[in-house]
Each structure stands twice: as structure tokens, then as C-alpha cells.
Amino acid sequence: MLSRTADHLFWMARYTERAENTARMLDVHYQTSLLPQSDAVARQGWEALLRISELMPAYQYQYGEISARDVLHFMVRDEHNPSSIFSCLRAARENARAVRGVLTTEMWETQNQTWLELQRLLRAGDFERDPGHFFEWVKFRSHVSRGVAYGTMLQDEAFHFLRMGTFLERADNTARMLDVKFHAAAPEVSVPAGPLSAADPTLDFYHWSSILRSVSAFEIYRKVYRSVITPERVAELLILRQDMPRSLTACLDEVVRNLEAVRNDHSAETERHAGRLRAELRFARIDEILANGLHAFLTQFLERVNALGTRISQTFLLPVSA
């Protein structure tokens, strides 16, 4: 496959996944902001969301003080923010248009319809009237995109580059969310934490459950652990569980699987780095991760998964990435 074509497919999938991840985080923050809380706590929540995406400097340059209204506008419809939902879905559609001949008709129509419908919803003010419903729509369109790709595309190189982009983006987002959320909630979680604190169990419950809901893992947590929510179990679920679709381990499993499917004469080193990172996750223990410091572990993971993305670009794609 031509590197230009692979590049468009890879980034089409990444931008679609990024739009969904942004909608997930915004939805949880918006729902949490409706609970009784001080202005300072609410502001910290919106600030954490900006830090997850490393967008704090760009936001402050454009808006100054943090407010829920401005953060939502910046992250949803700001055309100058390359990580806004608007920018991501526009970029996904443009990448799809560039490789229209490689996609199935259903796949192209899904991407194109999502972009057209997004513009209609924003013009009609649907987002301002009901943010929660809008975020559900974004998540649904991302689900449709993945489902149509899986159900209609030949599982050849094009398909594998789509999957690779999806799971690299998902791994990056899950790690960022965990790092910022855990740091904000409990800096002391570098050692195994106990169940919800006796000081304010209600606030603790909503905080940890919001992390799980950000990745559709609240019900999965209840099914797996059948007990109260604890920070170490949240970390274990989202880092080490192979059967949790958005865990770091599950994402790396998919990346390695799709890398193997598109291997060439120059990809051995890239595969080695991906396989080593997956192996370290598979054989890690959550107590050891927490004892050594969760922030240090996640920071190193982000560095390595971004380096892996660079290696994939150098091996298969165009040198310029988004």
C-alpha cells in the first residue's frame, strides 16, 4: 500500500477516535458539574480536562479565565482548536475523502454523513440546548464508523491501518485521563489506596465512578470486582485487564496484532518496540505499579506509545503527522 494512502487511513481513524474520547470526557465533566460543588472544585475539573489534552496554554491565550461555557465551546466547536470535536470530525472526513477509492461506499457515506450532520447540529444550536445528547451523538457516530469498517471492509492492509490508528489513539487518551484524574484526586495513590475515604465517601464515589464512566467501564467494574470502588482497582481495570476494551493492555494487544498483519522488510524494530511494551503491560502487577508511582508509570507509557506512533509513521506512513 502507498504510504500516502496508509497515512490518510491511519489519521482518519485517529481523529474519529479522538472526537469520541473528547466527547466522553466532556460528557462526564458536564454531568459532574451539575452536582453540588464549590466554584473552585468545578474550575479544577474543567482545568484538568484541558490538561489531559495539553491544551491549557492554547485555551488561556484565547479565553483567559476558565469557565464551563468557554471550555465547552473551545473543546466542541472552536475551529482554531485542532483537538476540538469540530476539527477532529472535519479532519477525519478530509482524510476519508482523500482515500475515497479505498473505502467501501458505506464507510465513506458514514464519514461524510457524520460531518454534514455535525454542521447541522451546531448551526441549529442542539449542542447548547442539550450537551449530553450531543455528546451521545458523537459517541454513537464513532461506534457506527468502527462497526461499518469492521462489517464492510476487506480485512487487508487498509483495514489494519484503520485499527492501528484507533487503538494507538485510545491508549494515549486512556493514559492521559488516568494520569490527570488520579493526580487531581489522590496524589497519595502512589501506594495502594484503600476503599472510598471515610471523610467524604459520596464525593469519592462520584469522582472514581466518573473516571470509569469516561471509558464506559462503570458497569464492567461492578461485574468484575463486585465491591466498592477503590483507586487501585480502577487503575488495574484500565491498565492491565486484557478483556477491558479501553485498557492500555487491550489497546497494545490490538496495535501489535495489526502491526504483524502489515509487517514489511523494515518493520522489525517497530514491532519489537510494540511487543516489548505489550509484554511489560501483560506481566505487570498493579501493586508494583502503584508502589513505584502511578504518575511515573503513565508518563513513561505516554512517552513510549507516542514514540511508537512516530516509529509507525517512519516505517509505513508519511513523515508529516497531525
What this model shows, in words?
The chain is mainly α. 75% of the residues lie in helices and 0% in strands. It has 16 helices and no strands. Helix 1 (3-33) packs antiparallel against helix 4 (68-76) and helix 6 packs antiparallel against helix 8 (131-152). The radius of gyration is 20 Å and the shape is globular.
Features of the shown structure:
322 residues; mainly alpha
Largest sheet: none
In helices, the fraction of residues equals over 70%
Mean pLDDT: 89
Q: Output the radius of gyration.
A: 20 Å
Shape: globular
Beta percentage is: under 5%
| Order of SSEs | HHHHHHHHHHHHHHHH
- Continuous helix count: 16
Which structural category do the helix and sheet elements fall into? Answer: mainly alpha
Number of DSSP strand runs: 0
Spatial gap, N to C terminus: 20 Å
Low-confidence stretches: 187-199
Q: What's this model, at a glance?
A:
This protein has 322 residues and is mainly alpha-helical.
Map the helices and strands.
Blueprint: H1 3-33, H2 39-52, H3 56-63, H4 68-76, H5 85-98, H6 105-124, H7 126-129, H8 131-152, H9 157-185, H10 201-214, H11 218-225, H12 231-239, H13 248-261, H14 268-282, H15 286-292, H16 294-316
Helix pairs in contact: 1-2, 1-4, 1-5, 1-8, 1-9, 1-10, 2-9, 5-6, 6-8, 9-12, 9-13, 9-16, 13-14, 14-16
